[in-house]
Amino acid sequence: MSSSTDGTAAAEVHDGRDLEDRLWPVEEHLADILGKIRPLEPIELQLLDAQGCVLVEDITAPAALPPFDNSSMDGYAVRVADVEGATEEFPAVLTVVGDVAAGGGEPPVVGPGEAARIMTGAPLPPGAEAVVPVEWTDGGTGGGPATAMTGPGGDSGEVRVHRPAGARAHVRARGSDVTAGDLVLRAGTVLGPAQIGLLAAIGRATVTVRPRPRVVVMSTGSELVPPGERLGPGLIHDSNSFVLTACARDAGALAYRVGAVGDEPETLRAALEDQLVRADAVVTSGGVSVGAYDVVKETLSGLTAEEGSVAFRRLAMQPGKPQGFGRIGPDRTPLFALPGNPVSSYVSFELFVRPALRALMGLEPVDRRTVRAVCTDGIESSPKGRRQYLRGRHDPATGRVTTVGGAGSHLVKALAEANALIVVPEDTTGVEPGAELDVVLLD
Ligand SMILES: Nc1nc2c(c(=O)[nH]1)N[C@H]1C(S)=C(S)[C@@H](COP(=O)(O)OP(=O)(O)OC[C@H]3O[C@@H](n4cnc5c(N)ncnc54)[C@H](O)[C@@H]3O)O[C@H]1N2
Ligand code: MOO
User: What average pLDDT score do residues 230-259 get?
Assistant: First the structure.
């Protein structure tokens, strides 16, 4: 395999003679992809299936929240005049007329000189104007201040109240959270846990959202063996299909990993045909450079107009120079043919596939966050004319970044230590320690 710093050939400079051979700027490739991606059609999903998705409808509340006046404390529902001036020494002595439990049936009516035991969340019973917490009473025991309610038998007898309570004290008013007809969530909201909770609270069981894209991930290469199996001579474990599936999930997609496909065009064709029915996007790795067995390029360069089209190009970046993108099959499903070198496929996913998946879901922004950071170490030999994405560790506290590993696109251990990509511009071939650079944050 040739290394990443190849490419000083004349064809790398776009001089107008050979458009196919020019190096595509990273932004141009991304713009081409995003220009061909349409957000997925909205569907109605059960609440928990809609987590992380973008709402496409305005949601109004059909009824008030809370739906009724209710107690915010475990205690006694009382009339204000009955507890006026009450102290521990001179308590208000009230007759307990029953219990009001959350979700309970018909509540007792609280008349003058009476109280009803009430639990947090239970409706304020008729006649009552306030709630005194059980800690402000003797809890019906005839002793000192209570720390908790007694058992079920405490729904009768007497209670001594030690403190007064103003009107509506410890009462959560009907509609104090949401009034009927309120716009509670706007179209465009991303549904996180709190939004899903609100939808459930107002009684919505389903919502209309842009769904998560179903992404089929396929690696290619006859040298690939699944992890867990023994390696023979010249074989390596398939790691790309795992990292890309994990990346797709991380981007919000439902990802299906297809085991490695060999280097035969017929096998790849058959696998793609099989998988297309369940894919909103397909991601392949490997087989896109200029080798004798570059199956993806060979198979997908020659599609008929009916089958779709995939363009293979060389980008002005390192790693990730050879790339394919197109749309295939009856639904013109987007297909990303990423280079096989492990770091190249990962970086390509981050820069091109992740934004596309977010665009399919209607999520914004589509790009990872980029910040300026001081690079503590020097960088030598960044390829001229290509934007280099080096792996780095970024410390948000100091705003500094340090390279991890080198530029080699086979260095998976360093990739696993990185939390950022350090961007060395196309026209820069070396950077002094302490220089400020763009850094793409990966977490
Ligand atoms: N003569 C040239 N050779 C190469 C060029 C070039 O311009 N001229 N470009 C190099 C660059 S840059 C890249 S990137 C790679 C891309 O190659 P392919 O996409 O065809 O990938 P493969 O040849 O299939 O594999 C490359 C490398 O990665 C390993 N690999 C592949 N798949 C997996 C996987 N699923 N898990 C782990 N590792 C994988 C594979 O064994 C190779 O070592 O081409 C350069 N060559
Ligand atoms: O440099 Mo390749 O472009 O290793 O991805």
Answer: 97
Region 79-107: mean pLDDT is 94
Ligand 1 proximity of 345 Cβ (cutoff 6 Å): no
Q: DSSP for 132-160, please give it.
A: EEGGGB-TTSSSS--SS---GGGGSSEEE
Give the H/E segment covering residue 216. strand 214-220
User: Is position 148 within any domain?
Assistant: yes
Give me the CATH number covering residue 308.
3.40.980.10
Residues 346 and 264 in one domain: yes
Domain of residue 60, CATH code: 3.90.105.10
Q: Does one domain contain both 251 and 278? A: yes
211 lines ligand 2 (CB under 6 A): no
Our answer on whether the CB atom of 319 is closer than 6 Å to any ligand 2 atom is: yes
Q: Which helix (H) or strand (E) holds 249?
A: helix 240-250
Same domain (yes/no): 34, 52: no
**ipTM of the complex model:** 0.98
Q: Which residues contact 344 (CB under 8 A, 6 or more apart)?
A: 4, 319, 320, 321, 338, 409
From ligand 2's centre to the CA of 385, what distance in Å?
14
- What is the chain's Cα-based Rg? 33
Same domain, 52 and 77: no
Residues 6+ apart with CB under 8 A from 304: none
DSSP 182: -
- Say yes or no: 126 and 47 in one domain: no
**pLDDT one-digit tens code per residue, 392-428:** 999 999 999 999 999 999 999 999 999 999 999 999 9
Tell me if 209 sits within 8 A of 45, measured CB to CB.
yes
Q: Is residue 2 part of a domain?
A: no
Whose alpha carbon is nearest atom 30 of ligand 1? 340
Question: Do 149 and 248 belong to one domain?
Answer: no
Instruction: Measure 441 CA to ligand 1 centroid, in angstroms.
Output: 25
Whether residue 262 has its Cβ less than 6 Å from ligand 1? no
Q: Which residues form the domain of 381?
A: 370-441
The response to whether residue 409 sits with its C-beta less than 6 Å from ligand 2 reads: yes
